[in-house]
Amino acid sequence: MNLIKEHPILEFHHARKVTFSFDGRSLEGYEGEPIASALHANKIRIYRETPKTKRPRGFFCAIGKCSSCFMTVDGVPNVRICVTPLKAGMVVQSQKGNGSVPWSEPEAQKEGDGLA
Amino acid sequence: MRETEVLVIGGGPAGLSAAVEAASHGCDVTLVDSDLALGGQLVKQTHKFFGSEAEYAGTRGIKIAKILFEELEAAKDRVTVLSNTTANGFYPDDGVVALVKDEEEYIRLRPKKTIVATGAMERLLPFPNNDAPGVYGAGAIQTLMNVYGVFPGERVLMIGAGNIGLIVSYQLMQAGVEIAGIVEFMPKVGGYWVHAAKVRRLGVPIYLRHTITDAIVEKGVVAGAHIQRVDEKGRPTEEIRKIDCDTICMAVGLIPTAEILWQAGCKMTYVPELCGHVPQRNAFMQTTNPNFWVAGDASGIEEASAAMVEGRISGISIARALGRIQGEAFQERYLELWQRLSNLRAGEVGAKIRSGLEKCSNCGCDWGEEA
After folding, report:
1. Which of A17, A87, B163, B330 could anchor a disulfide with B191, C-beta 3.0 to 4.6 Å?
2. Testing the interface with B: which of A1, A2, A5, A7 to mutate, by most B Cβ within 10 A?
3. Which fold would CATH assign to domain B124-250?
4. What residue in A sits closest to B254 (Cα-Cα)?
């Protein structure tokens, strides 16, 4: 990871190192730190593609306000990765367009409750 | 439905100060912050503060955050802290503030009084490719390198030679990042000379009367920029220069975060000196909605020292509104705080702020509304 090792003022205390996946690749990061920090430390800067003009977007505000860093995390789209803590085994995917939530039939309907 | 006496929205310098001050007078406080940890910008500020001794001049922001955290710890019986919690809206019909915690839990909270200490967000300039990965806000860059120890890039072009642009440039160099230059539209540096001198001594060019015309993008990310000289009237000239960099840092100002104040029906005024729409307030930092107070950058862009005192003023004034402190005890503490705030704004450096405040303050000598 591309981390600052020596600093005249600061000492960095990282939590446990964990692995997670990014677009199928296995990467390392620190648990509890924002997903964006982990990706950036792995020199990954493109996080999504805009719906209409297909432009790449990345990190910008780091405070969860600008919507630039939306990604699909564990199947959930539009996750603000600059303020979402990394967990072991997370599946992080570049987001294309608006993203969609996988739809599963409600349980009652699967069992055939007589509703159309 | 949860209830609290005092809700403080935002756990930066203003909100932390407001929470500990209100708690010190016996109020029960709920402090919410949308970030993973409290501290706001303080936890990224490795430089030593200016201002006055009462507001920790000469102390680094990160150290000031620790002092406030200790105060908060001492007041923990009275303060409930909810981090990773966003105040999503205020509903005037029933006085409920809707909170979302950890992106999962929806909490309806009804406070008696609310302090809005939501801070600010970064401004962006319009230029081609300003949306490209590698164009980052100055606060975001500080978060990456000073909180998480991650290199924001290898070579950074700084846009803006105000205090933030100068200080963040110096911080980047401390972390081992190269600065390609600092670009400033105005004919002179906006920040303090001491900060400008530090980066100049290290050989960083400051391009005065220049603006960024576009970011150069290769493989989807920033690979450089063009900057252009402007004439004395700010019109572009023929002089264009290509800068090699992989990151463009925007330090071109902040905008107060004021959504909740609008929702609460506070009377808002556009004040250019304070960088946006800000609420009208009295000398106690109370807005025109008698249940809403404001402190810090949400009340107008200033700096952290003033934000901390404003937080204290709103905290003690809410304690008074709730009947926890009154008479001479209140006056003594309040006047001390007010004096500290006036000291910070004295002289030439405070002139712009004072002129802005005249447009949105009903200060006078009245003692505000007794709630």
Report:
1. B163
2. A7
3. FAD/NAD(P)-binding domain (3.50.50)
4. A61
- Residue B367's pLDDT is 44
Q: Decide: pTM greater than 0.90.
A: yes
Smallest CA–CA distance, residue A41 to chain B, in Å, is 6
Integer Cα distance of B296 and B46 in angstroms: 20
Check if the beta carbon of residue A32 is closer than 8 Å to that of residue A102: no
Instruction: List phi, psi (to 5°) of B355.
Output: -65, -40
**CATH 3.10.20.440 holds for A17-96:** yes
Q: Does domain B2-121+254-362 have CATH number 3.40.50.720?
A: no
Contact B150 A4 (CB under 8 A): yes
How many Cβ atoms from other residues are within 10 Å of residue B131's Cβ? 17
Query: What SS3 class is residue B12?
Result: coil
Q: What is the tens place of the pLDDT at every residue in B24-47?
A: 999 999 999 999 999 999 998 998
- B137 and A60 Cβ atoms separated by less than 8 Å: yes
| A55 contacts B133? CB cut-off 8 A | no
Domain layout of chain B by residue ranges: 2-121+254-362, 124-250
Residues of B in contact with A69 (CB under 8 A): none
Residues ≥6 apart with Cβ < 8 Å to B246 = B134, B153, B154, B155, B156, B221, B222, B223
List the domain boundaries for chain A. 17-96
* CB proximity list for B344: less than 8 A, separation 6 or greater: B51, B52, B55, B305, B306, B309, B350
How many angstroms separate the Cα of B94 from the Cα of each of A115, B108, B258, B291, B321? 38, 11, 20, 13, 20
- pLDDT tens digits for B306-331? 999 999 999 999 999 999 999 999 99
User: Rounded distance, CA B33 to CA B266, Å?
Assistant: 21
Q: What phi and psi, each to the nearest 5 degrees, are found at residue B347?
A: 75, -165
ipTM metric: 0.90
- Pick B139's closest partner by Cβ from A14, A62, A79: A62
